[in-house]
Design goal:
Order of helices and strands: HH
Oligomer: single chain
Number of helices: 2
Largest sheet: none
Structural class: mainly alpha
Distance between the termini: 33 Å
Length: 63
């Protein structure tokens, strides 16, 4: 994935998260949980993009 595409994806995710936090009324607890989940997903995605973790599709949860 080219670097410019990576930056664009990160900016789009950041803007979407900012819009949700700014304009959608929610309890602060729900906003914090949403922010943490988005940050964790982005970090896992970045690790996968840079090849620091294996293919995520091979990870199985449950039986």
């Amino acid at each position: 994935m080219p670097l410019i595409q990576l930056v664009i994806v990160l900016v789009v995710v950041g803007v979407i998260l900012w819009v949700i936090n700014s304009y959608i009324p929610m309890q602060s607890t729900i906003k914090k949980i949403l922010n943490v989940v988005v940050v964790i997903v982005v970090i896992i995605w970045l690790l996968n993009v840079f090849g620091l973790i294996g293919n995520i599709s091979t990870i199985r949860i449950g039986k």
